[in-house]
C-alpha cells in the first residue's frame, strides 16, 4: 500500500510541551495496517496530544512520525488526504443541519455536489439519523452528535481513522453501533487508532493496545498480553461460614499461588489472579476441604487495576491530578 | 441494517481534493446556510443602522441642516460606511466560534487550501455587507436622499466593500488571540466606536475644535466617507478617492501580515 513501510503509523520519540507542561514525552508507536490500535489511558495522559500530532494538527517538538508512509510535518498534505479525525468533542457545525454538515464535508473532500448529497443521505440512513437529517445539530442528543461526527469522518472512506474517545458519554446502544461501524470499516481495510479510557472498549475492539500515562507509553501489547502482566482480574469469594475464613484463605492462597486478602465483609476473600483455570481448581479445593462457598465472581481487570499494576497508583488519582493541572493552566 | 451498513462503508475511489476556489465557495455556502438558519444575525446588522438613521435624521436633521431630507442628503453616505464598518466585526467572532467549538480542527485535518476557511468566510461577509448597505440605502432614499450619479453609487459600494475587507484583517487578529466570542466582540467594539464616531459622518469636521479636526481628518473612516459622499453626489475628486484607497491599503499593509502570521501559527497548533 505504500513503499515506506507496512506500518500505518510509525512514530519515534514524539514529544510536545505546552509551556512548562510536558504533555507528551517520547512516545514510540508501531501500528500495523488494517488493525485497530487502542490507546488507553486516563484523562490528561497525553492521548489527545499524541493523536493531534499524528493527524497533523500539532507539530511535534521532538521526534518523528510517519503516517501511511508520509512524514506528518513535511508531507502533512499527503497525510490529510488519507486520514480522518473524530475529535473528543464532536466537531460539527451546530447551526447547520445533520445533512448539511455531511454535504459540507463531502464537498471539502472533493466529492461532487450530487454525489455529496447522495452520500449524506446514505450515511444518515445507516447511522439512524435520517429522521433528524433536516434538523439543526444543536437540537441533537450527545449520542446523535457523536454518530454524525463519525459519519462525517467516513464521507470518503479514510485509510486511517483517528478516533479520540469515540464512545465517551454514549448510551450502551449507541456505543454498540459505533463499535460495529468501526469493526466493519476495519474489516474492509481501514486502520483505526482509537483512544479510550475504558479497558473493555480497547479489549473489544483493539488488536493491540498501548497504555499511556504521563506522556509516555508504559505498556504495549495485545489485550491478552496486557492482562497477563496485570493478572486476569480480581477473584471475590464469599463463604457460607465466617468462622472458616482463615481456613479458606489458606486453601485459596496455596492453590492460586498468590496472596489472598480478607475483606471488611467477614465472609469475603479477595485475590488478584492471572490464570482463570487455577481459579476453577482453587474453588474445587475449597469444596474438597469442606469450606462452603456462597458465591464467587471473577472480574475482568479494570483500567484502575491495570494502572495499579503498571504504575503502583490508581488511574483515578492520576486523572484528578491532571485535571487540577489543566485548571491551573486555564487560570 | 447490517447489509446497508456494509454497502455504505465499502471503500470507494478517493476523489481529488478540491481546489482553492471550490473550497472557498464551499465555506461561503456554509456561511450563507448559517444566515438562513440564524437570520437574527441579519437583523443585528440591519436594525442598528436603521435605528441610527432614523434617530439622527429626525433628532438632529432640522437643527443641523434645516430639514430631515437635507440632513439625509449629508448623512446617508456616512451611515452606509458606518453600517458596513460595524458588521465587519462579526468576521472575527465567527472565526473565534469555529476555533473554540472545535470544528476548526476538523477543517484543518482536511486536504484543502488552508486559507479557504478565511476566504470563504469573506465571500459570505461580502453578501452581508451588501445586504446591510442596500437596506440603509433604500431607507435613505425614502427619507429624501437623492444620489446624483448611478455609476458613482456603484463605485462607492465597491469602495465600501474594499474598506470592510481591510477592517476584517483587524478583527481576525482578535478572533485568533482571544478566548471567547464575547471577548472578541468587546475588543472589536472598543476600537470600532471611536473609529466610527470620531469622524465626519454626523457633522462636518469644520464645526469641531482644531485638535479634534486633526484626529477626524486622519481617521480612515473619514477618508472613506468623504470619497463615498463625493462619488454619490457626482463631485468626485481623484485626490479624495486616492486618500480613501490609501487608507484601506495602510490598514491591510499593517494588519494583514499579522493576521496571516497568526493564522499560519494557529494551523500548526
Task: Describe what you observe in this structure.
The complex is a heterodimer of chains A (331) and B (269). Chain A is built from twelve helices and 14 strands. By secondary structure, chain A is an alpha/beta fold. Chain A folds into two domains: 7-228, P-loop containing nucleotide triphosphate hydrolases (Rossmann fold, 3-Layer(aba) Sandwich), CATH 3.40.50.300; 232-300, Alpha-Beta Plaits. In chain A, strands 6-7-8-3-9-10 form a six-stranded mixed sheet, with helices on both faces. A four-stranded antiparallel sheet of chain A has the order 2-1-4-5, with helices on one face. In chain A, helix 3 packs across helix 4 and helix 8 (223-230) packs across helix 11. Chain B has 269 residues and is mainly α. Chain B has one domain (20-267). Chain B has twelve helices and no strands. In chain B, helix 4 (68-87) packs across helix 11 and helix 5 (89-101) packs antiparallel against helix 7 (116-143). Classes of the chains: A alpha/beta (331), B mainly alpha (269). The A-B interface holds A 52, 55-59, 77, 80-85, 87, 89-97, 100, 104-105, 107-112, 122-123, 125-126, 136, 152, 154, 156-157, 180-181, 184-185, 188-190 and B 1, 4-6, 8-12, 14-18, 22-23, 26, 29-30, 33-34, 37-38, 101-103, 105-112, 268-269.
